[in-house]
Specification:
By secondary structure, the chain is α/β, with parallel strands linked by helices. Helix content is 21%, strand content 22%.
């Protein structure tokens, strides 16, 4: 599907329009709730909006998948509206398959940063068949200077701050390129905000600080489990968090959270919650303040909002200065997705004429349609989702032939 279609689908069809985004919530409004799950050494958080829209951000490590699935069944009664994988590392994706199997999901988003791990490829194959739409956070190509913002109803919105491909290339030559290109998103409700940072690196923070963005947030989900490199002093000064949540495992091998990160957080005055010590942390916002409580009955805090209601973007979001450099430690490039499996071609009788890909005029009909093994849907040949799967493909030379065996995919509307 086209970038504009993907963006429009996210903005209009995905959840809710953004009307009244800057308006303060009414006294009768239900709260916004975020559950920072205790998944050990990993990340997983569930957003539940006042209108009941649900967004799962990351799925923790494999060893926590049953615990996460059980908790989701307790909290979610309908398919998740959106699942976000911030980046393709096992401690963030390991429980997502079981999570989706447990409660279902309508849409899946990840940065689109390719990674050669089998676990990531298996996840993409699974969501390609189990989830209606698979997408990346591309800004609106007609307004590339804006942020992609997803409405959750009642004035709640989720703005994706990074990455911004294709408007800007992925960061490279960093300590960890997958980490550096984590999805970073700001959840806002009235005068409150929660900033999700995945495993963002110092390079990510530095690139973001060049943007005209209001980073002020009531609560910060600390990057990389409190690793010593992220949560730089400059970034924390821009975020100004009243509370910080660190998701990490008891006695983990990485020493997370590190003394360096904790010291920088302490300097901001933020109250730190840790899943290794506090268990599940729940943050509840009424649009004016955020109440945080520890699942083990320990720490609690009411943090005043202090966030100026209104757009997160303070002006045009322009590309960062280009960095013409080569990654020194990037893993070898994997084989092109979709090119490793056998291909079965199904033709109607008689077969209609086909147009070679790339030679058709603008606006011409797609000549072939693709179905992935194990999936019940078919895609346009030029659908971006196909580039992200290594599954065996069935190629149909007409839409009618494909429709006899599968239904149209919602991400590209073939």
């Amino acid at each position: 599907m086209t970038s504009f279609t993907r963006w429009l689908t996210l903005l209009v069809l995905l959840l809710a329009p953004l009307t009244g985004l800057a308006a303060a919530p009414s006294a009768a409004s239900r709260p916004l709730t975020v559950y920072f799950f205790d998944v050990g050494q990993g990340d997983a958080a569930l957003v539940v909006s006042p209108t009941g829209k649900t967004v799962l951000i990351d799925g923790g490590p494999p060893e926590a998948r049953e615990r996460l699935a059980r908790r989701l069944r307790e909290l979610v009664k309908e398919p998740l509206d959106l699942v976000i994988l911030t980046h393709p590392h096992l401690d963030h994706l390991g429980g997502l398959t079981e999570a989706v199997r447990a409660v279902g999901a309508k849409r899946f988003m990840d940065p689109g940063f390719d990674h050669p791990s089998d676990a990531y490829r298996d996840l993409l194959d699974f969501v390609g068949g189990a989830v209606g739409q698979v997408m990346t956070p591309e800004p609106n190509p007609k307004s590339p200077e804006t942020l992609l913002t997803i409405g959750l109803g009642e004035g709640v919105s989720l703005s994706v701050l990074w990455p911004r491909v294709p408007q800007e290339p992925f960061l490279d030559d960093t300590r960890s390129d997958p980490n550096s290109n984590s999805i970073v998103a700001k959840l806002t409700y009235g005068k409150t905000a929660i900033l999700f940072t995945g495993d963002a690196e110092p390079d990510t923070e530095a690139a973001l600080l060049q943007k005209r963005i209001d980073f002020t947030s009531t609560v910060l989900k600390v990057a990389h489990h409190g690793g010593r490199h992220s949560s730089t002093a400059a970034f924390l000064a821009a975020v100004k968090p009243k509370a910080a949540v660190i998701s990490c495992g008891v006695g983990n091998d990485y020493g997370h959270p590190t003394p360096e990160a904790l010291e920088r957080l302490k300097a901001t005055g933020a109250r730190v919650f840790r899943t290794d010590q506090d268990g599940e942390v729940v943050a509840v916002s009424d649009g004016t303040s955020v109440s945080l409580r520890a699942g083990n009955g320990g720490a609690a805090l009411v943090a005043p909002g202090g966030v100026k209601p209104g757009p997160v973007a303070l002006g045009p979001i322009l590309p960062s200065p280009s960095r013409a450099r080569r990654s020194r430690d990037r893993e070898p490039e994997p084989a092109p997705r979709g090119g490793t499996g056998a291909v079965t071609v199904k033709r109607p009788d008689p077969a209609p004429p086909t147009t070679p890909r790339g030679s058709a005029a603008v606006g011409a009909e797609v000549s072939r349609f693709i179905g992935l093994k194990g999936s019940k849907v078919f895609h346009r040949e030029d659908c971006g989702a196909l580039k992200r799967s290594k599954s065996e493909r069935t190629v149909y030379t007409s839409r009618d032939a494909a429709a006899r065996e599968r239904r149209p995919a919602e991400d590209c509307h073939p």
